[in-house]
Amino acid sequence: MGAIRVDGDSPTLAIIKTELQLAANGFLDKNLPLAFDHQEEAARLIISKQTPSGWDPSAKGSLGREGYRLLKNDAGVVWVAADTDIGLLYGTFKFLQLMQTGAGIPESGYHSEPKIQHRILNHWDNLNRTLERGYAGASIWNWHRLPDHIDQQYHDYARANASIGINGSVVTNVNANALVLTPEYLEKAAALADVFRPYGITLYLTARFSAPMELGRLPTADPLDPGVQQWWKDKADEIYRYIPDFGGFLVKADSEGQPGPHNYQRSQADGANLLADALKPHGGIVMWRAFVYSEDTPDDRAKQAYQEFQPYDGSFRDNVIVQVKNGAIDFQPREPFHPLFGAMPQTPLMMEFQITQEYLGQATHHVFLPSLYTEVLQSDTYVNGPGSTVSKVIDGSLHGYSLTAMAGVSNIGTDRNWTGHHFHQANWFGYGRLAWDPEISPETIADEWLRLTFTNAPEFIEPVKKMMLQSHEMAVNYMTPLGLHHIMAWSHHYGPGPWVTDRHRDDWTSTYYHKASENGVGFDRTASGSNALEQYAPELQAQWGDPKRVPEKYLLWFHHVPWEYTLQNGRTLWDEMALRYQKGVDEARQNVATWESLESYVDEERHAHVFSFLEIQAKEAAWWRDACLLYFQQFAQSPLPEGVEKPEKELEYFMGIRHRYVPGN
Questions:
Q1: Taking the model in full, what pTM does it have?
Q2: In the predicted model, is pLDDT for residue 231 greater than 80?
C-alpha cells in the first residue's frame, strides 16, 4: 500500500485517503505515512475514474453512480475503478475488506453494483433522544447541540454505513414530531446532511400528516384541500433551501394514533400523492408505510394492509414507494412474507425489515437476522409463475419498477459497541449487504463479518459461524415454534406472555392470535376462517391451505389444529411443540459452551461481554419454554414428552412476572 495514486480532489476522495491511511496503520500496527500522488508508473494502487496508462479502457465498463470494479494487472498493480467518487469510496472499502480477510482480488477482477437504489436506515429516534424500540442506549442525534457541535460519532456513523453500502438515513421516528419541519430543526438536520454527503448518504425526515395544522395553523390537513397542498409545497421548497439534496419523507399515517388521510375520508394514495407533488420538483421521494390497520378490531389484522393498499395499485405518483413490512403482523420471529409483495405490479414496493430486536430478545439475545431476511427475500410469490421471489419484486426486475428501495429499522445507539450486543453489529452489517445485493447468502455475510470483526482463524470462524446461522431457528423454537406468533409480554414485548388478554384492543393480545383451547391452537386463515390466505397467489393458497402440505413452520399461522394432530414426523402437535421449545433451550446453552471454549481468539473484554449475554439468553430461553408450555399444557391436557425438562415453578409464577422501565418504550 506504500505507493498509491488517488486521482482528483473532493471531500469524498479526502475520505478515501483517510481510510487508506487508517488501514495501513491498523494492518501494520504502526504509523506509516502514505503519499497519494505517485506517478501512475510507480503506483501499486490506483484509485481513479480515469483509465490509467497501459490499461485497457474497456476493462472498466459502465458502472453507474455507485458501482465499482477492482482490477489487477500482470504486474500486480491494483486499479479501483468507478464512474463517480462515491463509487470509488465503495470500491476502496471493498478493497480494504478483501485485504483484511485475506481474500485478495480475483484474477478476473471484482465488479459490484447495487441492485437496490435507496438502501436506507430508519431511526425510530425522538427529538428528546429517547428511542422507540431501541435497546443500545440513547439516540446518537444530539439535537440540542446541533448545528454548532458535530459529534465525531456522526462521522463514524456515516463511515460505517458507507462501508456496507447504505446510502440513506431517516433520522427521526415514524411516530413523527412536526417540530422537525421547523426552521430551527431544519438547520440542525442540514448539519447532519453535510456530514453524510461525502459518504454518499442522503438524509430523509419523517413527516407528520397533521403538520399543516400544528405548524401552519390551518383548519385542516385534508390532502385535497388547496391550502394544504400549497402549505406542503412551500414547506418542501423551504427544506430544499436548507438541504439541497434532501431525499424526501417517510410517513406513518392512520396507524396507532398517527393522523392520516382517513381523518378526511381520503385514501392512502391521496395522502401519499399530496407529499409526492410537493417533493417532485426537487427530485424527492415519499416512502409511505403500509403498516395501516383500523381503529376497530378486525377479524384478522393480517388482512388489513392489503385491503388498504391493493385496490389503489397504479394510483400513486411515480415518486411514491410503498414501504411494506416483511410480514403482515409486526416483525415477528417468523412470518410468511407480506401478501402485498407481488400484488401491486403498478406501484413500487420497498421492504421494511427490523434490525432492532423488538420481538426477538431485544439487546441480550443473539439472533443473526440475515437468515430471517433471506428467508423472506427468497420466498416465491408465484404472481408471475414460479421464481417470482420477493427479492425480484423489490429490486424492480419482476414488475419493471424504476424506483427501488429497502429500509431497515436501526438497532444502534450510544452504547460503546453501537448495538448493545456485539453480535448485533452483524445484523446492521448484514442488512447493508442484503440491501446492496438481496441474493447474497447468510453464510457469506456471517463469514465476512466474523473475519472483519474478530479473526481469520478457521478454528474460530467455523464454530461461531455455525452458532450464528442456527440462531434464528433456535430463537423461533424457544419463542414461537410451528407458526405461533405475537405471544410476547404486553406492550414492551420482553419475555413470554401467551396469557395476555382483555386489553382495549383484542388484536394487541396474545389470545387473539393463538386461540388456544381444549380443541386446539392456531389462527385459521383459510376459507373456513378469516380467509387471509386468499390474498396470496393460487399456488400458495393450495399449498398453505392444506395442513398436510403447508410448511410446518407456518402451520399455526394458517390453521387451527387439534393438540393430538399428527405431524409429518409422526409426533402429535403437543409433543412436537414441547420438543421444539426444549431444542431451542438446548441450543442456547450449547452456544454458551461454544463461546466459552473460544476465549483465546477474542480479547478479554469482548469475550466476557458476549459470554454474559449468551448466559442471559440461555436463562431466558428456559423462561420462554417453561412459561409457554405450562400455559398451553392447561389446554392440551397432556404430559410433557420425554426429553423435555419439567418446569421448576408453576404457571402463576410466570404470569406474575412484571418488568418495569424496559428500554425502548
A1: 0.98
A2: yes
